[in-house]
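2024-03-11 09:14:02 INFO queue: dequeued item Sigma-70 family RNA polymerase sigma factor, len=185
2024-03-11 09:14:02 INFO validating residues
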Amino acid sequence: MSTFLEAHIVQLLGEEDERAVGLIYDNYADTLYGVAYKITKDDALAQDALQESFVKIWKKAASYDAKKAKLFTWLFRITRNTAIDKLRSANLRDDREIQIDISDVYNLGTTSLKPEHLDVKDHIGNLDEKYQEVLNALFFEGMTHQEASEALDVPLGTVKSRLKIGLRELRKVFNCFVLLIILVL
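2024-03-11 09:14:37 INFO prediction written
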């Protein structure tokens, strides 16, 4: 790609001009799809990752800094991270489905243990607000870590730390509950 065209795209990004996305698509989409496909090894996931990447590229257009990275490097990182998130999300979904289908360990039946009896939302409500926000986004709104990071406008590492701390606090409450269940059974 010519440096003139790249500079033009960078200028359009800085101006938040929609033509930048079209130019990026025309000049980089095939390569970025290849990046996503190499990570996901699945056509549908790679296409989803590419589409999400373009949305992120547009949303983050004003934050691109040519002094920190070349345009392709910036596009590559966004696409790579999005593809990794997609793959992790798909693998977690697959693992949960397999586990539910083949595992009868701890199968208490639907009448024995109901989520509403656990009062999970009530216990989450007792946590600091910053932990509540993360847990609600991830577990009740179905967001990925990356999506929660963007929605809450906090760094990805902060989302993960707050998740870990929030779960640790909930574990303290529910360890006692699980112990009671085991004693009753």
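2024-03-11 09:14:37 INFO annotate: The mean pLDDT is 78.
2024-03-11 09:14:38 INFO item closed
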